[in-house]
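Z., the sequence and structure:
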Amino acid sequence: MKISELAQATGTPPDTIRYYEREGLLPAPARGDNNYRVYGPEHAERLAFIRQGRGLDMSLDEIRTLLAWRDRPEADCGAVNDLLDEHIGHIATRIRELRALERQLKDLRAQCRQASNTAHCGILAGMVEQATQPAPVRSSHVQGTHGRPA
């Protein structure tokens, strides 16, 4: 199948498919006589696996590691368990951070019970006050990888 057919079959934009190829997550397909990429069912299956990993909020490096183990069916899966346990820990940390953010936003919202002019807006004043305080420590989970194409 052509890249447009793979994209349609998997719900993945062609640019993302090419990106995964460049990142080494998806093997380069064969080329047809017309030099078009020709994908097979193994590409669709691997792409579905990658998308499932992204849906679980895994970084590309985590997915790359899982794919490497998946490509070695005889290997012990203890390391896979370890990777998932570590990822669960990162998610738990992020949930705590998001709950703290929710409390912070609710505290801000409580500072402005009713609409008035913006000169007296408790939310805006609270944001200015918060901006002068030290920034909270954020999770150390592989930064920068989750914003890439899904």
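The two ends are 21 Å apart (CA to CA). Residues 50 and 142 are 17 Å apart (CA to CA).

Let me know what you think.
H.
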